[in-house]
Each structure stands twice: as C-alpha cells, then as structure tokens.
Amino acid sequence: MALIVQKFGGTSVASVERIKSVAKKIKTFKDAGDQVVVSVSAMSGETNRMTDLAHQIQDKPSLREMDVLLTTGEQVTISLLSMALQQLGCDAISYTGSQVRITTDSEHGKARIKSIDSELIVKSLNEEKVVVIAGFQGVDEGGHITTLGRGGSDTTAVALAAALNADECQIYTDVDGVYTADPRIEPNARKMNNISYEEMLEMASLGSKVLQIRSVEFASKYNVSLRVLSSMIENPIGTLITSEEKIMEEAVISGIAHNKDEAKVSLIGVPDIPGVAYKILKPISDNNIEVDMILQSVSSKEGLANFAFTVHRNDFEESKEILEKVRSDLGALKVQSDDKIVKVSLVGIGMRSHAGIATKMFEVLHKENVNIQMISTSEIKISVAIDEKYLELAVRSLHSAFDLDKE
Amino acid sequence: MALIVQKFGGTSVASVERIKSVAKKIKTFKDAGDQVVVSVSAMSGETNRMTDLAHQIQDKPSLREMDVLLTTGEQVTISLLSMALQQLGCDAISYTGSQVRITTDSEHGKARIKSIDSELIVKSLNEEKVVVIAGFQGVDEGGHITTLGRGGSDTTAVALAAALNADECQIYTDVDGVYTADPRIEPNARKMNNISYEEMLEMASLGSKVLQIRSVEFASKYNVSLRVLSSMIENPIGTLITSEEKIMEEAVISGIAHNKDEAKVSLIGVPDIPGVAYKILKPISDNNIEVDMILQSVSSKEGLANFAFTVHRNDFEESKEILEKVRSDLGALKVQSDDKIVKVSLVGIGMRSHAGIATKMFEVLHKENVNIQMISTSEIKISVAIDEKYLELAVRSLHSAFDLDKE
Question: Which neighbouring-strand residues pair with B268?
Fold first, then answer.
C-alpha cells in the first residue's frame, strides 16, 4: 500500500465525460490498495470565462476579489469529481484550500504556500476515502482566499505530497513524460524514465514546458518523487523526477532543451574601462528586465570592447532603447540587436564527471556549419545561442551525436 | 447614520450589467452615510447549470458535494459585486459564508443557521467598507460547507441583520412590496406601507409569494425590521414588515390572500365512532402529507358523518388512494375528491378586536352566490374553500367590501 498524490489539470477535467474518466483512473489505484489524494484544477475554459466577467466590470480588478472569483473554478471540479468517484462506488470527499488550511502568504494571485494542515486529510484517508483537494488555492493567515498563480496546482500537489510524506506525486498531463528533446523537432526523441530534479529544472527553465519550475523546486526541497505522466493513456509509466541518488542509470547527457523566447542586444565599441559591465546592466535590471546569457569580448579596434546579452523577446524593444541611452553615456560606437536567435542547451548530471562535452558539442555544430554566437555553462548544462534558422539542424545533430535516441 | 442589510436575489444580479446597477444602488446608501452589508444570491441560471452538471454524473448526488458545488454560485457574485463597487470608488470586501462563520447545523441542502460571528463584518464596516456576503450558505461545526436550501438567502440577510443589530433589512425583489391582494386578480389592490410579522406569515403561507416564510419567522423572532422593495425602480419605499407595536395605522383587515395549490378529499358516510378523525388522518400524516383545512360534519344518514380535508395538489392522488383504504377499514360509504377548489383568506391583526368580520365575509360571498365549502379561522385570519371558478369574484367583492382599495 502506497500513499499517492495525483494532480489532474484543466484539460483532464474539461468535461463531465473527462471527469468520469479521471475517476475511473483514480479508482484503479484505490482498488489496488493505495491511499489516494487528488489535486485538481478548474475545468479548462472556466478561468478565462470568469476573467472575462471580471474585466467587463474593471480593467484591473482587485487581486483579492479575483482570487475569490477564480477559486470557484476548482471548487466546482472537486465536487463533481467526488460525485463521479462516489458513483463508481469509491468513497470520496472534497476539500477547498481553505478547508485543509493550505496556508499561504497574502500575495493575491501569486501566493506561496507556507504550510498545510494534514490532519483532516489523514482522517479522511483513514476512513478509506479518496480525498479530492482544490489545487491552485489557499488561504492567508487572515482567512482571505488566495491563489498560487499560473501552474499553481502542480505546486499544490507537490506540497500535499510533502506534507503527507507521500510515496509519489503524480502529475497527469497531456504528454506522456519528459523527452530527450522536443519530439516536434527531433522525431527520434526518446521518453526518459528518470531525470534528476536539477536536470528537470534546467530542462524546464530552458523551455521544455512540462512542469512548472516552482513545483520542481518544491519537490527537490522536500525530496518528493514526482512523476509526469499522461492522463490520456492506460497504465502510463511517464518520467520519474527524483533525487540524483535514486537514479540508477546515469547518462552523461540527459536531454537537449531549446528556448525560442530570447533575443540578443549588443553594445559595440565600448571604451574598455573598469565597471563597464555594471554600467550597462544596471539600467537593464532597474527596469526589471532579466538577462540570461552575457558575452564580453575585446573588439577589433584598439582599447574597445563589445558587450552582448540576451533578454526575453518581450523585453527586446525596451532593452534596445535603454542600451541606446547607455551608448551615448559611455561613448560607445553603436547598438546591435537580433531577435532571430535561439538557445540550445545540453543538460546532464553526468557532465560533471566527463570532460570534453563542450568540445564535442562545438565540434558537432562546427561540422554542420552552425555559427555559435554566445556560450554559457553551468555544472550540468552547456547552452549556445545560434541563429534560429539552425534550430532543427542543431538539435537533431546533437541528439544523434550524443546517442540520445538509444536507451 | 444607519446600519442596513440589503439582499439582492438571483434576478437582480443575473448579468454584469445588473450587478453594476445593484452597485450603484448600494452606493447611494453609502454616500448618504449608512453602513451597508449586502447579501447576494447566485446569478440566476447558475444554480440550474451546476445542478445539470451534477446530474450528468449522479442521479442523486451526495448532498455534501452538492453544497460544495452550488455555493460557488454566490461566491462568483460576491466577488463581481465587490469589483463593481470598487469601480464606483466605493470600497468593498467580499466574504463567503465560511469566512464570516455563518455556522449552521449539518443538514446539507437545508441547513439552519445557528450563529454568525460578526467580528470580521464589524471590522470591515469600521474600515468604511461595504461588506458583501454570500447568501444561502454556511459552514457546520466540522468545517463542511452547507446550504440553507431554497430561499435561504432571505434568511441569511435577516440573520445578518439580527447578528449586527441592524436598523433595517431590505429585501430587493421584482415586486415593489406586499399588496392587499394579488394585483393580477384585483387591479385595485393597493401596496401596503406596513404589515406585521404575523400578518405577513399568514399572507406568505397563504400564497402571496413575496418572501420566504422562514425569513419572516426569523425576523419576527429577532425583531428585525424587514422591508420588501423593488430592485427595478429608483428610491423605492416598499412594504415594511415589523412588529405589531411599531405599526401606527392599524387596519381591521390588511389583505386578502389566496391559494390555488390545494385540493379537497372527503370520506362520506363514516360510522360516527370515537377516534374517527385520528384513524383517518394518521395514515395521511404517516405518508408525510400535510393537511390544511379540516371539516367534520354530521351526515344526513343516521349515525354517519362526513369527514373532509385539504392537501397540497401534489399529494392529491396519493391522498385519494390512502383514503380508499381507510374507507374499507372503517366501513365508510365512499371517497369524494375535488381538486378544483381555491382557498381565499382575509388577514388582519385588527380582526382580534372586531367581531363580525366572519359574518360580513360570509354575507359578501352569499350575495355573490359563492358557495362556501369549508371554513377555517385563526386569531388573525379567516379562510374559506370555494370552487376555483369563483376566485376572482370572491377576491374582488371582498376587497371592495372591506375597503382595501382605500388608504
């Protein structure tokens, strides 16, 4: 007998039919003797419908009242799913975030979980009930209803698993796991059976949009075994995201991530004086723009340097304007910009103990005549910025060169 | 400065436009310096929509889960109305039944309010906020969400007014008050400015469907001044329902109520032995059928009696069947039945001190050749059962004879 926390997102509970089919899936675990806690989202479409209503009243509705409004979405789902389970003869009980005291801070719309009172949940589990809990929502210490913001129901599930010391937290989604690369780009991409938290964090933040980063951080912090799997197929295995120690088959490279959301801005011909990086990046961060890759290089002209960095494409125009001002302040030659870049990253814990991964990566790209514009590295990843037209070529050649298509 | 509790039903908040117009109305009270607590229902249609979803899953959904589901309806309204008030520059805050601890018993779907914790409401009022509270819902001592059943949001408003010791509880509805008779039957019917709780209870239970009986009982118990008024017109006065002592202009007769939902069943030729009424009515009440008017009379045949009573038309067929069995047990001659009757009642506190009201009523009906089939009286009402074809004639002639059309 295991204690399992399962999370079903909005698409999985989009209709009465789908809710019934989720109930059937849950019942197979209960029938097998497991204790099951389920966290669910609003039926897909509901959140948008309610946001529309609010916007017909106010352009910028009160965040507190938006939370009161939107949390009704999951409340509808928990009641319907509990009914569907009862209809199958599977005893069930629903709880809102407030009822099980998912206590958060008071940041409406993006609250963070501080604690969960597991007493009521454990009591209901001991009564042989499936416990169905509204995801995405909580309550602050003043009793006000809060939401965790987008993707928050993944976090609810992980937090529940941590609070209950569950054996596994299963996140049901519309993909059947985490792949070695985006299968739409690399048809030979292979589903991984295991991946470490750290790798998953790199994969997720680099654009493999399977799980919310926060929920993986949370899982890592509380050592919750997290499984991503498909709600659409029977008996899925998915991908287990767990601590490094628990992974037996350790590959050098786990996967290839890419990110098409970045753009590059450069300041050319900067007088090479001390503190120049600070002077360039300070006004950028003052405007709440996040910088990812950074490159400083000596220019061809004597005593002049070039300085380049990447930002989110949403911040591209603003970054160019700021840099133009910095250019005249510093007496630099010109601003260059390019929003046709893509970042491709190799991720793998094994990299730590294997030298030469970067060399091999650059060699592969060189052979394909892919020009590398920027490089950044961490302990478990190497990223390069390249022209976006080379995306498919780079991903496929690296995938093959590092044998990612092979078990 | 007064403390006012206002209640707006589902029709008044059926759309974003109507919610905005309710907000405007509330603001006029706030601007005049009043403290305002508002209780609202779900947007009309929402409860049916959700009930449909539930019935797609279960024929008889769990009452507990139905309450979790249906209470989202008012939660949507409180958030939208709070936004609409804020948009008008009127500070507002929403609370669910759970948040302000509207504590009920655990009878899901028809719970009764036990207490309200007014602390949070008073705190918000002192912060100059309009407090918007979900009607119809509460929470039991175990923290489970409950609903008060149909019409429950009137009761919420009255209970709030009682707990807060409010100056007035205003129930906004689609009629502009309580009339001396149904205006669709008697065009000269006049809106009353005042009516006592007792009279209103008689009027309500007799078919003037303006207010839920329970909320009037509640108002009477806690001496809450209750005003029924229209949400559709500007500055309505409505009808004030209050304690007898507070009513200055005391009419002998306040109004005429009628009820078309009753049917008559009779047992003819019953041997006149002791306990016959008990033997006839016991099996009726055992089947949860409520009896209203009762008539026992000596039959024309020696030693035989007739026994007649009225029941709700929904219970007509079942009552006939039960009575048929009783007939053979008691050796009575036959069962007679008539579902073409109507009950017409004169209601008025002044009746207590005025003899001859009944005599005058019977005289008026006699003059119009309306045959009286049954009579029942209480301290403040006289009811007669008559053929339903005489309904209009009886109401109009009584209305005129008792000068109800005159101020």
Answer: B334
